[in-house]
Amino acid sequence: MQTKNDMLIVEDLTLLMMDDKSGAIAGAGTLYYTLGGAVLVELGLGGHTRADENDQGLNGVKVHAVAGRAPSDPLLRAARTKVGERVRGVQTLLIEIGTGMRETVLDRLVERGMLRQETKKTLGLFRATSTTVADTEYKKALVEKVRAVLIDGVEPDARTAALVGLLSASGTLPTLHRFIPWSGKVCKRAKELEQSSWGAEAVNAAVMRTVAAVSAGTVVAATS
């Protein structure tokens, strides 16, 4: 059984992006980019992958698998195997790794006891499953780490820096405004951490590209 001690960045990030009561996840429309990015960032921090900053194409920097011991976690191990299939741009990998990641991560968090899932019948006929945060103390500790970096100026460890960078890149950091008051200073610090991570930067580029495409589609629909 998985424990709290071996939580992945992608799991912590999902908890931070999730509303405690409704279970809604911020940035749901581009979530696969964000979760894929979190996995790639963790592989990079663990020395399992590397980005070639001197080799960039239309799909961003090229990502290589690093030979050596495979990650012990099955989710990371599967992602590293995918990276190792062939060298390609980070934007492509965000989609390939992030697609379907939401369900995988939620199942893991339920198994860990971090989330609670309940299935109820509506109108006595239709079954609906709700997901809510079960371990609010763990999430509160995560938020405090992020707050300390953005508000109090604490120098983050690599993991916390990655979380902040990914929250910034996904555009979901302002949803934590009740605990971390949004300001220009907070935005600037978060953006600095985002830009120090090739994985987080790739997420930002992918999200912004999607937003632009959706906006363009909306304009076309409105004028046709």
What does this structure look like?
This protein has one domain (4-215): yeast vps74-n-term truncation variant domain like (yeast vps74-n-term truncation variant fold, Orthogonal Bundle). Helix content is 55%, strand content 15%. It has nine helices and five strands; from the N terminus they run H-H-E-E-H-E-H-H-E-E-H-H-H-H. The strands form two sheets. Strands 1-2-3 form a three-stranded antiparallel β-sheet. It has a two-stranded antiparallel sheet with strand order 4-5. The longest helix is centred in the C-terminal third of the chain and has 26 residues, at 198-223. Mean pLDDT is 87; it is low at 215-224.
> Any idea what the shape is?
globular
Q: What is the tally of helical segments?
A: 9
Helix content: 40-55%
Rg (CA only): 18 Å
Tags for this model:
single chain; 224 residues; yeast vps74-n-term truncation variant fold; 3-stranded antiparallel beta sheet; 5 strands; 15% strand; globular; disordered C terminus
Short overview:
With 224 residues, the protein is an alpha+beta fold.
Which SSEs are present, and which pair or pack?
Elements: H1 9-17, H2 31-45, E1 49-57, E2 60-65, H3 74-85, E3 88-89, H4 90-98, H5 101-112, E4 115-122, E5 126-133, H6 136-150, H7 158-170, H8 184-195, H9 198-223
Antiparallel strand pairs: 1-2, 2-3, 4-5
